[in-house]
Write a structure and sequence with these properties.
Radius of gyration: 23 Å
Structural class: alpha+beta
Number of strands: 15
Helix content: 10-25%
Strand order of the largest sheet: 2-1-4-5-15
Oligomer: single chain
Number of helices: 5
């Protein structure tokens, strides 16, 4: 009897250890930043766009039949694939390996908040100036030149990002309903500025107009507050598509493409 109880106790300890290990593995996958559960359409144009809308999930062995002028971008474990019609394409075919590191992608989709805004100055001394247009380094940084719906992962850590940080600049945040104006300022060399949440509260559906001193035209932002911050590419893409945050979705796809993760297939 004692032997049976001992075995039960040992089995119970083993099961608990196994459960903890499984939970740890699941959490590790969840925060890896590059995990993608399945294939997802993230961009679609052409005659077949209605058949393959953004947000559509596709099995690994799915076949897509595309017509002339069709172009479908699919996000999968190997990165992004751009399928150009006409032709029949199998998602089971080997895609090019994703060269973007998991660390880079995790950093891009991780909301790092206002602490980064305070220390985000860019030192340009002794560095040659590139003609390449600066790109928003974080999916949750609000580009002051882009309007439309913007998904917020953390209302207490929203950061304003400006592409031209060669000099100092200011911006006015205007609340359209009552005309309240809140001013923000960037120092020379710093592209980041914390959103003034006390003066301009962030709520779901809140609208503000941004008027920047170094921006050609003002833009209107319609904020969408997410219930939780997405922890991987699949969840991030799904949230952006579901809420119509197009500028962020475009940034996500373009960033993956810049990492040479795109495999272009043409029929």
């Amino acid at each position: 009897m004692h032997s049976v109880e001992c075995k039960k106790a040992q089995y119970g300890n083993f099961a608990r250890s196994l459960g903890k290990a499984a939970l740890g593995a699941a959490l590790l996958v969840g925060v890896s930043g590059a995990a993608v559960a399945q294939n997802m359409v993230v961009r679609s144009t052409g005659p077949s766009a209605t058949s393959y809308p953004a947000g559509k999930k596709l099995a690994n062995g799915a076949k897509l039949t595309l017509k002339n002028l069709d172009m479908v971008t699919v996000l999968g474990k190997g990165g992004t694939r751009v399928l150009k019609g006409p032709g029949v394409f199998s998602l089971g075919a080997t895609a090019s390996a994703q060269s973007s590191s998991s660390t880079r992608l995790a950093s891009f989709i991780n909301n790092r908040g206002s602490s980064r805004a305070r220390t985000g100055a860019v030192r340009s001394a002794g560095v040659s100036v590139s003609n390449e247009e600066p790109k928003n380094p974080n999916l949750w940084f609000l580009d002051v030149t882009k309007g439309g719906k913007f998904c917020v992962a953390d209302a207490n850590a929203l950061v304003l990002w400006r592409p031209d940080y060669t000099g100092s600049a200011t911006a006015s945040i205007v609340e359209p309903a009552n005309g309240t104006v809140t001013a923000v300022a960037w120092r020379k060399g710093n592209p980041l500025k914390s959103w003034p949440t006390a003066e301009a509260p962030l709520t779901d559906g809140a609208r503000y107009r941004l008027i920047g001193s170094n921006v050609e035209k003002s833009v209107e932002i319609n904020f969408v507050m997410l219930n939780e911050s997405p922890q991987n590419l699949d969840d991030a893409a799904a949230a952006l598509i579901a809420n119509g945050c197009q500028s962020q979705l475009d940034l996500l796809v373009d960033t993956l493409d810049d990492g040479s993760s795109t495999n272009q297939d043409q029929g």
